[in-house]
Amino acid sequence: MEKERSQELQQNLAGEALAKIARKGGEANVVKHEQAIKFIGAACGIPEESTSKLLDTIRQGKENPDKARTSDALPETIRANMGNWSAQDMFWMVMDLFQAAIIMTAEEGRTTMYHMAEELADTPNFDKWLNGNQ
Q: 77-111, pLDDT tens digit by residue?
C-alpha cells in the first residue's frame, strides 16, 4: 500500500472518529479507530510522529467534544466531510483497510483492520448503497 494512501486512510479514520465523538460526546467508542491508525502507521512505515499527532487529535476530541469537528490536525478536505461520507467513500475506506491488512504480519493488526471495516460497513448509507436501495 502506498505511503500517501495509507496516510490518507489514517486521516480518514481520525476524521470518522472525531465525527463519532462530535455526535455522541466524549464517551464515544473510537478504540477501533485508534488501533487501526496505529497498525496502519506501523505496517506502512508512516513516521511515528504523524501517527501520534492523529491519535492526540482524537484524544483532544474526547476531552472536548464540542471542538472535535474543528481540529487543525486534519486537512480541510477531511474536516469538511467528517461524518458525511458517501457510501462509495465508505466502500473505498473498507477496501483500503483490507489492502492494509494484507501487508500486516501480526494477526492482531489484520483482525483490527477486519473489525474496523466491519464497523464502517455497518453504517446505514453503506448498507443502502450495497443493496441497491438508494
A: 666 666 667 778 888 999 999 999 999 999 999 99
3-state SS, 95-120, equals HHHHHHHHHCCCHHHHHHHHHHHHHH
Contact 101, 109 (CB under 8 A): yes
Contact 68, 21 (CB under 8 A): yes
The three cell numbers locating residue 134: 438508494
CA distance linking residue 28 with residue 22, whole number of Å = 9
Rounded distance between C-alpha atoms, residue 2 and residue 133, angstroms: 33
Contact predicate 88/129, CB 8 Å: yes
User: How many residues in the chain?
Assistant: 134
Whether residue 85 contacts residue 16, with contact meaning beta carbons closer than 8 Å, is answered with yes
34 with 55: CB under 8 angstroms? yes
What are the backbone angles phi and psi of residue 10, rounded to the nearest 5°? -60, -45
Longest CA span, the chain: 42
